[in-house]
């Protein structure tokens, strides 16, 4: 029995509440996925997700501009809607604000939030405001909808399914390093812009989630917010499976590769364990992989990246051939990092 939160960990805290929660009538999925799923109007499901951003924990006011923060606050929630195969519907914003916060900061935050709202057609519908004595507190709740039977859960994967990424991971973690430890490694201006944009302006893969849902392709799905290995572990836990991640197949972008070389680090580390990429990680029946990749190229102009496969057992292993290991660090945990 854990005595403190550091021992229990973030996901132990979630389990603590999940074990005691009793979903009511009309609740199809409560705690344990990217969104809660409720019965909606005939033929549809209602998706609900919420996320909190705290100054000093998720962002530094002197490091992240308010316009970027406004975008990211909504984008991180939209990524959860995308992970269920849903279409964004509306958002609610609750804020705690220090009394000495400049009005110009709040106006810039609003513009970034509304820019993301317009891009993904997810209007701001309401919320709450209060004062805060210890920095800016932001909490977004987003509603989405999906046709009945088209929602994609973490629990639907099968042994032998292939694991895919909607885009490469790791750039956001590199961007965070540049913010926290300026000036960071010697990089070109272009590489810095790419890595900082990945962290400050993530683009939730709403269109990809809709495609995978509409075509009935993904067997399970999650968005990468805590790290590829960590979030793949959630799919495995909910589906009762293990996974093997093939190191040589992990996509590494040129900017991340140059960042790692300049830092003297292994680029696999941020790609596998870095968080806040907000791309989709999903599983496919092997017979559907060609159709999924063709559809993504044709309709979205993107490449899907195969990175591994699901196995029996419960472990997430990394390697290739006959050499596989379980990484001690899989991603971010709020009470342990």
Helices and strands, with pairings:
Elements: H1 5-8, H2 10-20, E1 27-29, E2 36-39, E3 44-54, H3 66-83, E4 87-97, H4 103-119, E5 124-131, E6 137-147, E7 162-165, H5 171-180, H6 189-200, H7 206-214, E8 218-223, H8 228-239, E9 242-246, H9 254-263, H10 268-273, E10 280-284, H11 289-300, E11 305-311, E12 316-320, E13 323-325
Parallel strand pairs: 4-5, 9-12
Antiparallel strand pairs: 1-2, 2-3, 3-6, 4-6, 7-10, 7-11, 8-10, 9-11, 12-13
Helix pairs in contact: 3-4, 3-7, 5-6, 6-9, 7-11
Kindly describe this structure.
With 337 residues, the protein is an alpha+beta fold. It folds into 2 domains: 32-147, 60s Ribosomal Protein L30, Chain: A (2-Layer Sandwich), CATH 3.30.1330.10; 154-325, Phosphoribosyl-aminoimidazole Synthetase, Chain A, domain 2 (Alpha-Beta Complex). It is 36% helix and 25% strand. The protein has 11 helices and 13 strands. The protein has helices at residues 5-8, 10-20, 66-83, 103-119, 171-180, 189-200, 206-214, 228-239, 254-263, 268-273, 289-300; strands at 27-29, 36-39, 44-54, 87-97, 124-131, 137-147, 162-165, 218-223, 242-246, 280-284, 305-311, 316-320, 323-325. Strand 1 (27-29) and strand 2 form a beta hairpin. Residues 332-337 have low confidence and may be disordered.
């Amino acid at each position: 029995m854990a005595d403190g939160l550091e021992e229990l960990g973030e996901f132990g805290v979630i389990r603590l509440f999940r074990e005691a929660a009793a979903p009511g009538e009309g609740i199809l999925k409560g705690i344990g996925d990217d969104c809660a799923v409720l019965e909606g109007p005939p033929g549809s499901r209602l998706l609900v997700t919420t996320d909190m951003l705290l100054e000093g924990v998720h962002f530094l006011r002197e490091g992240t501009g308010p316009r970027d923060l406004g975008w990211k606050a909504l984008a991180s929630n939209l990524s959860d809607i995308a992970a269920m195969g849903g279409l964004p519907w509306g958002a609610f914003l609750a804020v705690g604000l220090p009394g000495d916060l400049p009005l110009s900061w709040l106006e810039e935050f609003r513009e970034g939030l509304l820019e993301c709202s317009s891009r993904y057609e997810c209007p701001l519908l309401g919320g709450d405001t209060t004062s805060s004595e210890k920095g800016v507190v932001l909490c977004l709740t987003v509603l989405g909808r999906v046709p009945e039977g088209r929602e994609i859960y973490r629990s639907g994967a099968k042994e032998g399914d292939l694991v895919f990424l909607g885009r490469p991971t790791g750039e956001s973690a590199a961007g965070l390093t540049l913010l926290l430890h300026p000036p960071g490694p010697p990089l070109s201006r272009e590489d810095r812009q790419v890595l900082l944009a990945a962290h400050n302006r993530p683009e939730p893969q709403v269109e990809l989630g809709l495609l995978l849902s509409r075509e009935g392709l993904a067997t399970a799905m999650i968005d990468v917010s805590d790290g590829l290995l960590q979030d793949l572990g959630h799919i495995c836990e909910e589906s009762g499976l293990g996974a093997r991640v093939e190191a040589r197949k992990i996509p590494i972008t040129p900017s991340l590769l140059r960042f790692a070389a300049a830092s003297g680090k292994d680029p696999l580390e941020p790609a596998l364990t870095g968080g806040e990429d907000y791309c989709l990680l999903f599983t496919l029946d092997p017979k559907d992989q060609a159709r999924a990749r063709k559809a993504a190229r044709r309709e979205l102009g993107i490449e899907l990246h195969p990175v591994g496969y699901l196995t029996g057992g419960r472990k997430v292993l990394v390697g290739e051939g006959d050499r596989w290991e379980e990484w001690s660090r899989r991603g971010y945990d709020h009470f342990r990092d």
